[in-house]
Write a structure and sequence with these properties.
The chain is of the alpha/beta class. The protein has one domain (31-334): Aldolase class I (TIM Barrel, Alpha-Beta Barrel), CATH 3.20.20.70. It is 38% helix and 16% strand. Strands 1-4-5-6-7-8-9-10 form an eight-stranded parallel beta barrel, surrounded by nine helices. Helix 4 packs across helix 5 and helix 7 packs across helix 8 (265-275). It is globular, with a radius of gyration of 21 Å.
């Protein structure tokens, strides 16, 4: 078989030709953003009519359930397909065993029911982890030495996932990084009649310094004793992420997540190339805060910073992005 040689010599080939006009740049773009690429994280708090701005996340607030419903309506109107919910559990509801995670009337379940009643067409992704419910701020149960134990934690996570599914969650997203929890949750969902509830596994969640504003938002930052390095991944490791993803897929995950986002685009690309499954990235609170700080300092134009960052996730192979800029970006795209 004869192979045709492509002439790459200048001036026969001028790569700037296709960049010379806006219509041509649009036609030749390899990747595109749309509101359907975004999942919008919302923080839910107690009360009615409440909006609590989060100091370390400028432009982001905690919302009471009624206000979260209003945000869901805004998201649906802009074509955002899914919200991610995170509760700011009152201190008197927190305990060492995180038992409030199993309460069918906790903030998470209240928000799920209210949003599904008002905006049934929008998807709801719910966080499965104990840090919003524990008095010590860890994602699981502790032994007498302060070590986060695995299997006993998984038992509670299963109950938490079932609680959220019963309230109407469409996707449960275990963010705890315990071994074996995806298989245990999938088995329980099937047994309890929730076969269509998806699992988005936080498959490669790193022990990152970029989570600080998030912990402020859910009220766990000041409570955290120690660190999470015994269960979240070491930022030095990439191949280990592929092992984590492979395990979660085998156990029944429908999609996987890499978290944080921008510092780990190499991991996103490796996961996509290795498994070719839906891969999401979480543009975490610290990443959001850096963009806002850069814009405020005049280091870059805010809209451009937001959109270029989001496009980097698509280029790396992401199916979608969890981002606090979701509503703003959707409005830019919708004109």
């Amino acid at each position: 078989m004869t192979r045709t040689t492509i002439n790459t010599a200048y001036p026969q080939l001028r790569l700037r030709r296709t960049r010379a006009s806006a219509w041509s740049r649009a036609m030749h773009a390899e990747h595109h953003l749309s509101p359907a690429d975004f999942i919008w994280p919302l923080f839910v708090t107690s009360g009615s009519g409440v909006e609590e701005p989060i100091g370390s996340l400028p432009g982001v607030s905690r919302w009471s359930v009624d206000r979260a419903v209003a945000r869901a309506k805004e998201a649906a109107a802009e074509g955002i397909p899914c919200l991610a919910l995170f509760p700011n559990t009152p201190e008197d509801k927190r305990s060492d065993d995180g038992a409030h995670a199993l309460d069918p009337d906790n903030l998470m379940c209240q928000a799920i029911r209210a949003i599904k009643d008002a905006v049934p067409e929008i998807g709801l992704l719910t966080d499965v982890a104990l840090d919003p419910y524990t008095a010590h701020g860890q994602d699981g149960l502790l032994d007498e030495t302060g070590y986060v134990v695995n299997d006993a934690t998984v038992d509670v996570l299963v109950g938490q996932a079932l609680n959220q599914a019963a309230a109407g969650a469409d996707i449960v997203a275990p963010s705890d990084m315990m071994d074996g929890r995806i298989g245990a949750i999938r088995e329980a969902l099937e047994a309890e009649g929730h076969a269509n509830v998806q699992i988005m596994a936080y498959a490669a969640k790193y022990a990152s310094v970029f989570y600080g504003p998030f912990r402020d938002a859910v009220g766990s930052g000041g409570l955290l004793k120690g660190n999470k390095k015994s269960y979240q991944m070491d930022p030095a490791n990439g191949a280990e992420a592929l092992r984590e993803v492979a395990l979660d897929i085998a156990e029944g995950a429908d999609s996987v997540m890499v978290k944080p986002g921008l510092p780990y685009l190499d991991v996103v690309a490796r996961v996509k190339d290795a498994f070719n499954i839906p891969v999401f990235a979480y543009q975490v609170s610290g990443e959001y805060a850096m963009i806002e700080a850069a814009a405020a300092a005049g280091a870059g134009e805010r809209n451009g910073l937001v959109m270029e960052m989001l496009m980097s996730f698509k280029r790396a192979g992401c199916t979608g992005v969890l981002t606090y800029h979701a509503l703003h970006a959707a409005r830019l795209l919708n004109g």
